[in-house]
Amino acid sequence: AKQAGGNQIRFFNPEMQEIINVRITLENELRLAIEKSQFHLYYQIQMDSANRVLGAEALIRWMHPERGLVLPATFIPLAEETGLILPIGKWVIETACAQIKVWQKEPLTRNLTLSVNVSAKQFRQKNFVEKVQSAVERYAVPGNLLKLELTESLLQYDIEVTIAMMKALNKIGVQFSLDDFGTGYSSLQYLKRLPLDQFKIDQSFVRDIATDNNDKAIVKAIVAMAQILDIDVIAEGVETEEQRQLLLGKGCVFFQGYLFSKPIPIDEFEALICRLTDT
Ligand code: C2E
Ligand code: CA
Ligand code: CA
Ligand code: CA
C-alpha cells in the first residue's frame, strides 16, 4: 500500500489502475464478442511427407471493431480466468463441426481432418463429452474428422476421469492430439494409458533443429516413443525446407507451419486446397 497524502491509503498507483481498467474493458468486450459474432476461425494446413493435404488446425481470431485482428494470446488467458472460455470453446467446436459438414459436400475436402484446441477449463467442465457428442451428431459429421488438441498439463489431472472421457469420445470416432508435446513431463508409462492418436511436437524443438543437438535428440525420442505407442507424430512451427528434411530424417512425417501456409481465413484456405489438389 502507498501513502497518498493525509491519512488516505491508496492501494494502486495510476499505472496499476490503468491495467485493471484495460482488463475490465477487455472482459466486457469479450462477453459481447460472441453475441456480435466477432470471433472467426482461421485454418492452418497440415501436410504429409508426400505433400498431400491431411487437414487443418482451427485457430481462433477476434475481429475487434476498433483494434482489428486480435490474436488468442491476448484474450485466451483472460477468457480462461473469467470462465468465458466455456462459451467461446463451445462456439469453436460448433463452428468446426459446421465447417466439417460443409467440407463433406466436396470431394476435394471430404477427407480433411480438423484439429481444435481445447483448454483445460473447457475439458474439465461438466458435460464436456456430451457437448462434443451433441455437436458431432447435430451436424451429422464423421467423428473421426474432428481432432481435439489437448495439452500435457490438462491430461495430468485426474487421469481415470480423463481416460473415461477420451474413450467415450473415441466411441463416436473423435481423435486426440497431444499439443505442445515435449514441454511437459509425461512418462511413457503414463502416456500409454491415454487413447491418443497424435503427438504434436512443440515448435520450440523445431525452431533450432538444424543447429541444436538437444532438439534433434528430443525429436528422435518423441518419434521413438510414438512408434512404441503406435501414435502419429506431427511437427508444428515448420518454417523451412531444412527443418522439414531434418524432421523427416528423424521419422516425423506430418507437418504444419509457415513453410506451407500461415493460418488463413476459410475462403483463402479453400482456395489453397484447390490449388494444391487440382494441379
Ligand atoms: P498452439 O495451439 O500451439 O498453436 C500454434 C501457434 O503457432 C498458432 O498461434 C500459430 O499461428 C502459430 N504458428 C503456426 N505455424 C507457425 C510457424 O511456422 N512459425 C511460428 N513462429 N508460429 C507458427 P496463434 O494462432 O496465435 O495461437 C496461439 C495459441 O492460442 C495456440 O497455440 C493455442 O494454445 C491458443 N488457441 C488458438 N485458438 C484457440 C482456440 O480456439 N481455443 C483455445 N482454447 N485456444 C486457442
Ligand atoms: Ca494447437
Ligand atoms: Ca501447439
Ligand atoms: Ca504452442
Automatic annotation (TrEMBL):
Domain EAL: 23-277
Domain of life: Bacteria
Residues annotated as signal peptide: none
Protein's recorded name: cyclic-guanylate-specific phosphodiesterase
Organism: Psychromonas ingrahamii (strain DSM 17664 / CCUG 51855 / 37)
First and last residues shown, out of full length: 320 to 598 of 598
